[in-house]
Amino acid sequence: MKKGLRQKLGQLLGRKPLQMQVAALCRDAAGQVLLVTSRDTGRWVLPKGWPMAGRTLADAASQEAWEEAGVRGSVEQTEIGTYRYDKRQDRGFDIPVQVRVYALKVDELAKRYPEVKQRKRGWFSPERAAELVAESELKGLLRALIMPSPASA
């Protein structure tokens, strides 16, 4: 179904309220950002998923980073930002999703992890990561990570 038609149908039927997902913004000691490819379209995204019973939102984001990217590290319990996107459903409809983002300092990157055969992963500067992701609010969040060099401060 074409995006324009889906949007018009959503307007006629009324849009669902926002669903919530959690994402891990994974960074290494050099400040590089880890992105993974989505399983459906292959576009670059943060590791993300649905909240999990018995876990804080930040810990659920950390678990998604493990499953989707093989990341182990320390996650901050306070969100660093949010962004919205429309998640495509199997039936062809999109649902609006707000993603809460949590910073994760990468300590270890495993070679084997649950989704290793389903995704690619890559390290990028925050500026390059902002160019690669599709969501404008996520681009802004990544661009906010770009720090001026000490010489220009």
- Figure out the total of helices: 4
**Average predicted local confidence, pLDDT:** 89
- How many beta strands in the DSSP annotation? 8
Q: How many strands, which pairing sense, and closed or not: the largest β-sheet?
A: 8 strands, mixed
What is the percentage of strand-forming residues?
25-35%
Q: How much is the radius of gyration in Å?
A: 16 Å
Note poorly predicted spans.
149-153
| Assembly context of the chains | single chain
Helix content: 25-40%
What coarse outline follows from CA principal-axis ratios?
globular
Order of helices and strands: HEEEEHEEEEHH
* Spatial separation of the terminal alpha carbons: 50 Å
- Sheet/helix structural class: alpha+beta
Describe the secondary-structure layout:
Layout: H1 3-13, E1 19-27, E2 33-37, E3 44-45, E4 48-49, H2 57-69, E5 71-75, E6 81-88, E7 94-109, E8 121-124, H3 126-132, H4 136-143
Parallel strand pairs: 1-7
Antiparallel strand pairs: 1-2, 1-4, 2-3, 2-8, 5-7, 6-7
Helix pairs in contact: 3-4
